[in-house]
Amino acid sequence: MNVEISDLTRRFGRTQAVAGVSLETGPGVFGLLGPNGAGKTSLLRMMATVLPPTSGRLRLLGRDPGSFGPRREIRRRLGYLPQSLGYYPGFTVAEFVEYFALLKEMRPGQVPRAVAATLEQVGLGDKARAKLRTLSGGMLRRVGIAQAIVNQPELLLLDEPTAGLDPEQRVAFRALLRDLGQRATVLVSTHLVEDVGAACTEVALMERGKIVFHGTPAELTARGEDSAAAGDAPLERGYSAVLAAARSAAPAPAPAPGSGPAVAKAPPA
Amino acid sequence: MTTAGVQSSPPVAGRQPARPALIVLRLPWLYLVSRRVPAALGLIAGLGVLLWASLRWHWNVAGGPAAQDFIPLAIEAGAAAVVAVTTYGPFGEPERAAGRWLPYLRLGAALALTAAAFGALAAAAAAGATGAAAGGLAGGTLALLRNLAGIVGTGLLTAAAAGGAFGWVGPFAYLLVTEVALTGTTTTPWVWPAHPAHDRGAAICASLVYAAGVAVITVRGARNSGRGPSPE
Amino acid sequence: MTAVTAAPARPRAPRAASAVPLATARLLRIELRRNAMPWILPLIAALFWFDSYRPSTGQPPLYLLRTFWNMGQGHTIIDFGPFVAGVAAWMGSRDGRRRTRDLVTAAPRARYAAQLATWAATAIWAVGAYLVFVGVLFAVYAHQGVAGEPPWWWVAVGATAVAAFSAAGFAVGALFASRFAAPLAAFGGFFAMVESSQTGFRDTGGWALILPTNSNGNFQPDSGIFYRYLPDLPIARLMFLAGIAVAALGLLGLPAWAGGPRLRRAAAVVTVAGVAATGTAVGLASTARLGPHGIVIPALHDAASDQPIRYTPVCGRAAGVPVCLNPAYQRYLADVTAALAPALREVSGLPGAPVRVSQVGALYESSSGVGSQAMTIAGHPPVLSLPLGAAVVTLPGPDGHRGQRGAAQAFDQSLVLLFAHAFAGAGNGAGTPAQQAVQAALMQGMGVPIADQPAVLSLGPSSWAPATNATSGPVYGAARRLTALGPAARRAWLTAHLTTLRSGQLTLGQLP
Q1: Residue C161: DSSP 8-state
Q2: Is B127 in contact with B136 (CB distance < 8 Å)?
Q3: Which of A130, C197, C287, C352 has the greatest CB tally within 10 Å of its CB?
């Protein structure tokens, strides 16, 4: 197992972003679904070792990231694409990927070839010398993917990787994910249910910091079959059904002062 | 993205409509907050304290008359630099495309911050001049107003040309030019700090620079140095 | 995007020891290419020309004079420091501004290491530019025939100061990623330099001496010509500035996000070492004393630096008397011989008339206020020792004083005054009334009328200046009587009485 999480929590002040998540997964593509504020990004950031957990147990690639030495080793074998990708506008595409390849302590002699191959993989081979400030949003996203995979990571964490990609690029990206999943553990956090359906072998659904579903995309689809949940596709209906069930089962949280009304609950399945 | 669970919200019950005066002030307030103006005011106040201390304890008297001007000028340039960097807008194109209020907001912010800087430094100079051993500003508040406005103008022009984040370069470059002029016998009114407070030519030049800076910032704003996250 | 064919996972080879420097070099190369510092260099170049070069062109063509404003008073540092600090703060705040903190933190290479690479590139640009600009400045000086040795130690101090500004600014930006970081760093740099200059005018010893724009003791009248620039104070300032740079960089390694525990402990040690170096430098400067060749710090002083600079003099003749100067003053040889000719002619054949004029290095001694700058006539046969260093006379400008009427007259009159003063035996002080009267009479014969002499006396040391500008009174009365004797009678009287006059035993009443 490349990812072993047991009762993991993360608090920000009084807000519990991740509330006791347990998860184990190995090589393959693992999708992480959930509405805004479900805790997906916080969970991914903890797995990326940039955010320490408040409590619980986390092991990545067989190591505990709580200690410096193992954490450093994990980071060498990790690729991470955050939801909001920061970049240096004056860098070229190749320089940006090379920069992070070097920070990931790749062997310097291998870096140029790895950068070139990665840029070809993400379809930016002809943009290697373009400045980042000249790229479209979708291209920037692909640069972000490139820096995440340049070191051939064994654990790849992608937060909203297809944001800004056009349909053709999304199809190609799903194929890339499937290929990467053959030798690495890939966790994809996304709102786009169809990406999960096309590329993932496992999927978890988060709601209010907890995992409310863990199974295969087919199982998620099945949850929506006999319900009147909203959605244009079977997987969407399964998603809606699971969320509705989770919300009806959980007590409604007290609204924060000054906030709008709580979202009305979906009718029971 | 799915629409599951999203339904139209009923109107909020029991909330009173905001008073019109508060609505009118809301936009300028949000604009000022987006430009970190409250923090800028704090920094300007800090510079005022620094000016007071330098006058109170004669930090500037060792080098002769030129040196007496220079430390207050350096503090004025610091205040001008703070005003200049507040011109940077973090929102980019959505803000520029949003509507017609932006130039007025820019104008109001530039004028208000200049006034605040002048008020803080003038108060500090007045406080620093009290007491038998304390010293005052050479040229008084009139020279302070002229010098500060002109140097703010250099900062606004620099922000328009190079971006708000680099608006500080203009005031300090001008300060260095002034330093050389103060130790020599310059006569050009474009180095207005080297002229007496009532010198008309120097006042005109400083006013022109300030007016030009305010005009450019009002119409065009600070140069947008590129997309991507803002320098916050 | 393409999906490559499935490949088995490759076993990871152990990293070679040479990989780290190569990776560091690659990181540095990227940072150098994409640094913001080059964008500010054209502005700094313009300010450097305006503030450091242009004011120096009015000084005589000697390195110690041309560089007193720009090196001695630290204007080269002022031209760079604040802007370097501001841009360095901008670079230091990059990860905060560009929201790449998570990306950089998630990499195995310590974030501290990445930051140091960014700082190193920033500092290389800044210090490199400083050295290039100073190099160009000295090349222009060399082309203009500026003489003497360049003050290399002060160049090193300036370069280290620029590095310190870059480190301090970078730390400000890295720790406070705000739009105000750059202007505050720039303002802090400017204010520190201004206060440093003010302190230099106000305080001459102790901790004030360590400040880089404190001009006290930087230069002595003939540094780089007769004797070397003493390295004691520059070394202390190097230690001070390097300590600031090291401490600032060490601070970056202290936060939790900087790296692992060992790295952070090392950073703490580095910070403490930097602070210790700074404090040690201040302590050393507090032991400084002004010596004949400059500031001496006993713990740092090397006796070898007291050795004079060897030279082959350049010589001319004035009224048949050989006049020899240090080759750095070669362009003034004609002026000196022309100024001394009437003086030497006036005293030719009298007891103690010099048979040779030889330039000696001028010395600065705080006790006399401006230094022991009098000429002396000593030895058998008598030789006139002539200090021409900056504190003695106002050397003419770069075009030669013959083209500047006022400067020419002042130079000539200064030399006549100093010669007459030495010949009368007045020494470093104002002299006895009888010596003053003989001095005045001699100057009259050398072409400086008595009516002009009070103004000429103000060209000399302050202790020689008359209480009033009036030429009435017993001293000038005696001088007029001596002058009225006529050349032959005056020479006969001087021959008979010069020895007594020089011993200080002759009274005013004993003059004719």
Answers
A1: H
A2: no
A3: C197
- Tokens matching residue C44: 């700094």
Q: Is residue A140 in a domain?
A: yes
pLDDT of residue C410: 80
* Six token digits for residue C87: 């841009």
Residues A11 and A142 reside in one and the same domain: no
Confidence of residue B231 (pLDDT cuts 50, 70, 90): very low
Is A64 within a domain? yes
Which parts of chain C have pLDDT scores under 50?
Answer: 3-11, 13-15, 367-372, 399-403
pLDDT of residue A262: 40
**Chain centroid to CA C20: how far?**
42
A200: contact with C, CB 8 A cutoff: no
Map out the domains of chain C as residue ranges.
22-306, 314-510
Cβ pair B232:C50 closer than 8 A: no
Find, among C423, C408, C66, C385, the residue nearest to C226 by Cα.
C385
Cross-sheet strand order for the sheet of C321-325: C314-318, C321-325, C356-360, C383-387, C376-378
Q: For residue A259, with 0-12 CB atoms within 10 Å meaning exposed, 13-18 middle and 19 or more buried, which class applies?
A: exposed
Same domain, yes or no: A160 and A241 = yes
> Residue C468's pLDDT is what?
60
Q: State whether A55 and A24 are in the same domain.
A: yes
Shortest CA gap C12–chain A (Å)? 10
Same domain, A140 and A243: no
| Closest-CA residue of chain B to C51 | B180
Amino acid residing at C481: R
What is the domain range of residue A141?
Answer: 85-152
Assigned domain for A202 exists: yes
What percent of chain B stands above pLDDT 70? Answer: 78
Which residue, A131, A152, A173, sits at the end of a domain?
A152
Three-state SS string across C187-207, please?
HHHHHHHHHHHHHHHHCCCHH
Q: Is B2 on the interface with A (CB under 8 A)?
A: yes
Q: At what angle do helices A93-103 and A111-121 cross, to 10 degrees?
A: 120
A179 and A243, same domain (yes or no): yes
pTM of the model: 0.85
Q: Which residues from chain A sit within 8 angstroms of residue C108, using beta carbons?
A: 72-73, 75-76, 103-105
Q: How far apart are alpha carbons C506 and C508 in whole angstroms?
A: 7
Residue A99 included in any domain = yes
pLDDT tens-digit profile of B153-176? Answer: 999 999 999 999 999 999 999 999
Q: Where are the domains of chain B?
A: 21-220
User: Taking CB atoms and an 8 Å limit, are C109 and A103 in contact across chains?
Assistant: yes
- pLDDT of B138 over the 90 cut: no
C-alpha torsion angle, residues C134, C138, C144, C147 (rounded to 10): 140
Task: Report whether pLDDT(A260) > 80.
Answer: no
In a shared domain, residues A59 and A91: no
* Residue type at B124 in one-letter notation: A
- Please list, in sequence order, all residues whose beta carbon lies within 8 angstroms of the beta carbon of residue C397, skipping any fewer than 6 positions away: C58, C59, C60, C404, C407
For chain C, which chains pass the contact test of at least 3 CB pairs under 8 Å? A, B
Whole-number pLDDT of residue C458: 78
